[in-house]
Each structure stands twice: as structure tokens, then as C-alpha cells.
Write a structure and sequence with these properties.
This protein has 91 residues and is of the alpha+beta class. It has a single domain, classed as TATA-Binding Protein. It is built from 2 helices and 5 strands, in the order E-H-E-E-E-E-H. It starts with a strand and ends with a helix.
């Protein structure tokens, strides 16, 4: 199973970080049909051939994504989209 892992340190308040993470989850739901489910400071996402998790703790945002065979063709653009969002919205 293909996939990727991204990490980014943050210093912004948790409330702002949570709001940014919620916007990312919402964006992925709208653009890619991925469903998100929050559990504390962790959101689990799943869709057709995609499973992922975003969590924030200890000053680091972690994003892990697993892609099925067909979804693996979109690994590079999906990773770039998530990385760009982290770089623009997380400080």
C-alpha cells in the first residue's frame, strides 16, 4: 500500500490549529469525497482507496496517509496539496 507521512512544527494556539485542521478536512471532503471523523485532537479520514490521520500534539502536526492501488496514482498531487496547505495555514 502506497502512502506518505508529513510533519510540521507549530507554535500557533491550539484553537487556531484545530480550526485550520477542520478547514483541511472539509476541503478534502469537498474536493475528494473523503469523510472525516474527529476524536479529540485527531481526525481520521477515509474515502475510496484512501485512509489518513491528522493529529497535533507536542508542537508537531502529523499527517499519515495510506493509498490503495488505484488511489496511489494520485499520491504525488495529494501529498503536494496537503504539504502546501500545511505550509500556508500552520505556523
Amino acid at each position: 500500500m502506497a502512502g506518505f507521512h508529513l510533519s510540521k512544527p507549530y507554535t500557533m494556539p491550539r484553537e487556531e490549529l484545530r480550526a485550520a485542521a477542520e478547514r483541511l478536512a472539509s476541503r478534502l471532503e469537498q474536493q475528494h469525497g473523503i469523510k472525516a471523523q474527529w476524536q479529540g485532537d485527531r481526525v481520521r479520514m477515509h474515502g475510496h482507496g484512501v485512509e489518513g490521520e491528522l493529529s497535533f500534539d507536542g508542537g508537531v502536526v502529523d499527517v499519515s496517509v495510506k493509498l490503495g492501488l488505484l488511489a496511489s496514482a494520485f499520491q504525488r498531487p495529494l501529498k503536494a496539496e496537503v504539504q502546501r496547505y500545511l505550509d500556508e495555514m500552520i505556523s
